[in-house]
Amino acid sequence: MEHMSLMFQDTRNWPLVAPLPSYGRGRELPGGRYMSFIHGDGIQDVVITGENGTIDGQGDVWWNMWRQRTLHFTRPNLIEIMNSTSIIISNVTFKNSPFWNIHPVYCSNVVIQNVTILAPADSPNTDGIDPDSSSHVCIEDSYISTGDDLVAVKSGWDEYGIAYGRPSQGITIRRVTGSSPFSGIAVGSETSGGVEDILVEHINLFNTGFGIHLKTNIGRGGIIKNITISNVYMENVRKGIKISGDVGGHPDEKYDPNAMPVLKDVTIKGVWGERVQQPGLIRGLKNAPFTGICLYNIKLHGATKTRNLPWQCSDVSGAAVEVSPSPCSELTSRQQNGTCSSSF
Fold first, then answer.
1. Are the CB atoms for 235 and 282 separated by under 8 Å?
2. How far is 184 from 211, CA to CA, in rounded Å?
3. Across-strand partners of 302?
4. Cis peptide before 104 (omega within 30 of 0)
5. A GO biological process this protein is involved in (predicted)?
6. What is d(CA 133, CA 146) in angstroms, rounded to the nearest whole number?
7. 240: which strand partners?
8. Torsion-angle region of residue 284: left (phi > 0), alpha (psi -120 to 50) or beta?
């Protein structure tokens, strides 16, 4: 593979696929979705690879339609693999995706390694890799620089994700480097099927909005638990760590406002940051506080040697050990949460 381009056509002739059942509609607009450039459904033992060749989505035409609000349906991903198992994606450069770059959804046993993903910083919603309601996924040894989250673990949207009920679990993300105006490593905000057993390690982030961002919202439901993030370096970042329960919109007005997400048992350790404007913000929900938040050995230096914006926290419990600057009072005692102290 040397260079493959997605040739733009009139969208009236672009094939459509049905909305994902765990989303109930297209992510951007009601109804179906424009089919991804590389699309697979119900496949197994498939390898997408090339000797560092390039797949170019020529997304600027799609981005302009999004900006001009002339789209009729949700933009296509560059790659979407559905209901599939034993997939390897490696040794390819992906650039200028119209929408999300690599989207394995309802899949298991997926390896994405040694890929480069590129899009301009102002390109809308060009997430790098979004494992979605998938299990046993490994993302490693890759460079990602896009206009949205570099890696975002998802599992469905509000009442549709709750009804579909398939979590993302057993996901490893390691040795990833990149930059984004949004998040480096994210969970959410679509987490209605649940997200659990996620391991993130050896990450390097530069010129990024949020280094680590766990995000959900009222109406999502779902349980986010057993998240371990370690050995992260970040530089020139707006917020180092953000864990928030008020992020992301809703597919329609049918969502259940009583469907509260549960977020618990998150360990973040071994994080070093330079030129971090604010070390952290952790905002749980009044009726669903975040619990078991464990911070250990975290040093996030400010934009100058003399000024650090403070941590901000609410509706959260947990502990912090060897965290600088000092975290909020809700996270200052090792003894507040037994599981937190044992994880150290």
1. no
2. 5
3. none
4. no
5. carbohydrate metabolic process
6. 22
7. none
8. beta
Residues 149/182, Cβ–Cβ less than 8 Å = yes
How many of the other CB atoms lie within 10 Å of CB of 166? 19
Give the number of other Cβ atoms within 10 Å of residue 64's Cβ: 11
Using one digit for the tens of pLDDT, what is the confidence trace for 302-317?
977 546 689 999 999 9
Q: How far is 285 from 302, CA to CA, in rounded Å? A: 28
Length of the chain: 344
Which residue do the tokens 């002739």 mark?
A: 13
Partners of 203 in the β-ladder: 176, 232
Q: Is CATH 2.160.20.10 correct for 3-343?
A: yes
Burial class (CB in 10 A: 0-12, 13-18, 19+), 283: middle
Q: What's the pTM?
A: 0.95
CA distance 221 to 243: 16
Q: Which amino acid is at 219?
A: G
Residues ≥6 apart with Cβ < 8 Å to 70: none
Helices (H) and strands (E) in the chain, counts: 3, 19
Residue 149 is among the residues annotated as catalytic for this protein: no
- 3-state DSSP assignment of residue 326: coil
- 80: how many CB neighbours lie within 10 A of its CB? 25
Cα separation, 118 vs 52, in Å, equals 13
pLDDT at 292 over 80: yes
Place of tokens 């809308």: 124
Q: Over the chain, what is the mean pLDDT?
A: 93
Closest CA to 292 of 282, 279, 302: 282
Which secondary structure element, helix H or strand E, spans residue 66, and what is its range?
helix 60-68
Hey, what are 135's tokens? 């299990």
Question: Which residue is catalytic, options 127, 130, 132, 148?
Answer: 148
Mean pLDDT for the stretch of residues 179-185: 98
Distance CA 254, CA 159 (A): 7
